Amino acid sequence: MKEVTKLVLPVAGLGKRLRPLTLKTPKNLVKVCGRPLIEYVLEEIRETRIKEVVLITNPKQREQFKRYVRGIQKGRFDWLKFHICTQPILGGDGHALLQAYDILKNEPFAVRFCDDIVVSDPPVLNSLLDIFSLIKAPVTLLQRVSDKLVPRFGVVKVKRVKFSGVRNLYKIVDVVEKPPLREAPSNLTIVGGYVITPKVLMNLKRIAGTLPLITDDALRIATALEIELIAGGRVYGWEFFGTRLDCGTLENIAKTEEFLENME
What we know:
The chain has 264 residues and is an alpha/beta fold. Helix content is 29%, strand content 26%.
């Protein structure tokens, strides 16, 4: 299978929970400790073979991201090629990927969500890509959460597997989207990032073709992974080492800034 050279950043969210910060600024350009959220993920690319970044934006925010990209391509990220696609409706993270189907369809690619800052050494994206190079199958980041948070996430049923040099790797048996706690197969949840194969992207395209109408959050990456499992494919999850800082609310941004400032 081809190596991963593209990273997709779904940045179309409106960031309603971050108002008033997002009344004029896209959520993923909101600054945390003086840097836009998106830059924390872009910094993860430096030690990888990623050469292209695909931004999936809201149509109303496209110009702001274009201006941002022009600025960083003149500086620290001048070696990256950027593509900007738009997601006309917020149809889910899987729907976002389909907006770049022609760019992505022939090779595996990584996905990261910018409102999850992950503090780890080496960078979490670097580790995820190394794991993919070993297993040659879709893989997602996993995190254990408290019982009260389980219903907010996609939760996985897993079997532990062994690959040389890889700790905390699991074979995913089932994915349950935002289950009540009593129905959750574990407290291992999907967060922050994936490596997606062309077959999984095709699963999303086929699902989209069966839907008469794509409504808010209707088409999820997790659903495409479920189909891959049903078809007998392999899907893995890696419980990463490091600290995940959720920047999805004003309260969490304040906590993240305090955490990062204390690291300096």
